[in-house]
Amino acid sequence: PVVMGRTTFESIGRPLPKRPNLVVSRDPTFRPEGVDLIPDLDLALQRADMLAEASGAGAYMIIGGAEIYAQTIDGADRLEITRVHATPEGDRHFPDIDPNVFEEVARSAEPGGEGDEFPMTFLTYRRRA
Predict the structure, then answer these.
(1) Other C-beta atoms within 10 Å of 43: how many?
(2) Fold for domain 1-75?
(3) Mean pLDDT of the region 55-71
(4) Residue pLDDT, tens place only, 102-128
(5) 79-98 average pLDDT score
(6) CA atoms of 6 and 66, how far apart (whole Å)
């Protein structure tokens, strides 16, 4: 399962395929097709945990946006980060990753190319014991 806020869902424009999409929104007029709309983040996380366990996936992914990340990073065991090497305009960012809490355990660089305008780095962090 994936958990995201309304703005993130709207930026994607459609449910992500082959997985439950849980969208957190308090807007009662927002009624997208193909997603589970949940009005509270805690309820969304409970539902995601239940779906992950029932499907055998073992985990769920938080995919944005900034407010959802800020509210969930303290409970994360692992962070899978894609750092795009560009400077887009915007006022929303992923929270700072505290190196005293998370350690980098994997890194893979990908050049920009077909379908990707900018180079990127994939990073995996694990919570320190």
Answers:
(1) 12
(2) Dihydrofolate Reductase, subunit A (3.40.430)
(3) 95
(4) 999 999 999 987 888 899 999 999 999
(5) 92
(6) 11
Residues found in the chain? 129
Residues 6+ apart with CB under 8 A from 78: 59, 124, 125, 126, 127
Domain boundaries, the chain: 1-75, 76-129
Of 66-70, 75-79, 86-90, the one with minimum mean pLDDT is 86-90
What integer is the mean pLDDT of 12-21? 97
Q: How many CB atoms lie within 10 A of CB 7?
A: 16
Q: What is the CA angle 17-97-12, rounded to 5?
A: 25
Q: What is the pTM of this model?
A: 0.90
Q: Are residues 2 and 19 in contact, defined by beta-carbon separation less than 8 angstroms?
A: yes
The answer to whether the beta carbons of residues 6 and 30 sit under 8 Å apart is yes
Please name the residue that has the structure tokens 């962090």.
125
Q: What per-residue string of b and e applies to 70-102 under the rule 16 or more CB within 10 Å gives b?
A: ebebeebeebeeeeeeeeeeeeeeeeeeeeeeb
